[in-house]
Amino acid sequence: MDFSLAPITERVRAAAADQTPLRIRGGGTKDFHGLALHGEVLDTRVLRGIVSYEPSELVVTVRAGTPLAELEATLAEQGQCLPFEPPHFAKTPADAATVGGMVAAGLSGPARASVGAVRDYLLGVTLLNGKAELLTFGGQVMKNVAGYDVSRLMAGAWGTLGLLTEVSLKVLPVAPGEATLRFEGINQADALRKLHAWGGQPLPLNASCWVHDQGAGTLYVRLRGAVAAVEAACKTMGGTRMDNATVAADWTACREQTLPWFAARAALPGHALWRLSVPATAPVLALPGGAQPLVEWHGALRWVQAPEAAGDALREAARAVGGNASVFVAAEANKSGTSGTFELQSKALEQIHARLKHSFDPAGIFNPGRMAQAW
């Protein structure tokens, strides 16, 4: 019997009976994102610990309240990792992102375009639904279901469908070869052209970042893979090779949004951080005010600092190339309140989300208003 889960189960059962809203919270490092934070806090951090880990099988099962840093350290001891590089967004030493929060947020770091997203590594989950029923989906192998893998619904659901108690993840060995190349004095259009050309070649591309800072553009490209493949790519791609130990902190800062480009928003009153998801082959976008984005994922992810009033123009610019735009960090976002937005692309999609919400959480007690004001 899981004694730490019993009081949580009883609390969910009571909340469903009384229709009391519950705010599921692990480390709270991503409280800045979403529409609103409502309900009594239901802390998941008592659900802590690695249940099983088989390095030879590349599978780990871990309880949802386990600190993400603890899991990453355990994997590193075996020369393995979470290749999608989930951001922690910890602002102080006391903050600690959790594994459940990682899955619930569904956010991935710089390597996302090359290795896949959180959901691609999610093998199975155990969760409490809105009826206080403990449900298990998936398992510990890649091909264990027929039909739709329900566990993947939980990646990016922000706790609105249930309280995650345990997750099973596929992990991968750390790549033996790595290098970062820097291309200075390059504008966005030329950077995109290079990335598009490299994307059509058998190169070990892992991550990229183009940033316009101090009046000039710089492109960084990280290569990971077999040592021979990385070394060969360095010889053909050009650029300046950087020291791995030095540049590792910069890639972490990119993942955690602590680069100077992100920090500059503090001096721009009323500006939000916008997230534009577009096809990697999309050209330079005409952005309001001539804003210079920070470009990741080989062109597919473009961060923009702009007033929330510029939302219509940003959404139209993204839609014009087959993408979408949403507020990632609101202008006045903080840990007690948030107004970032989730953009559902159609009424039909909204209805699907609403039906899923009702199926998992009929009383609507979990994280109400976090993803949609109606539920």
Q: Treating each run of at least 4 consecutive H or I residues as one helix, how many helices?
A: 10
The largest sheet, given as strand count, sense and whether it forms a barrel, is: 8 strands, antiparallel
Order of helices and strands: HEEEEHEHHEEEEEHEEHEHHEEEHEH
Number of strands: 17
Query: Quick check: average pLDDT?
Result: 92
What portion of residues belong to β-strands? 25-35%
Shape: globular
Estimate percent helicity.
25-40%
End-to-end C-alpha gap:
33 Å
Q: Structural class of the helix and strand makeup?
A: alpha+beta
Strand order of the largest sheet: 13-10-12-11-15-16-14-17
Q: List the uncertain runs.
A: none
CA-atom Rg in angstroms: 21 Å
Q: What does this molecule look like?
A:
The protein is an alpha+beta fold. 26% of the residues lie in helices and 25% in strands. It is built from 10 helices and 17 strands. The chain has helices spanning 6-18, 68-77, 99-105, 112-115, 188-199, 227-237, 244-256, 260-263, 311-319, 347-360, and strands spanning 22-25, 40-43, 50-54, 59-63, 80-81, 122-128, 134-138, 163-170, 172-173, 177-184, 205-213, 216-225, 240-242, 271-277, 294-296, 301-307, 324-329. The strands form 4 sheets. The protein has an 8-stranded antiparallel beta sheet. A 5-stranded antiparallel beta sheet has the order 3-4-8-6-7, with helices on one face. A two-stranded parallel sheet has the order 1-2. The radius of gyration is 21 Å and the shape is globular. The mean pLDDT is 92.
Question: What are its keywords?
Answer:
8-stranded antiparallel sheet; 5-stranded antiparallel sheet; 10 helices; single chain; 17 strands; alpha+beta; 375 residues
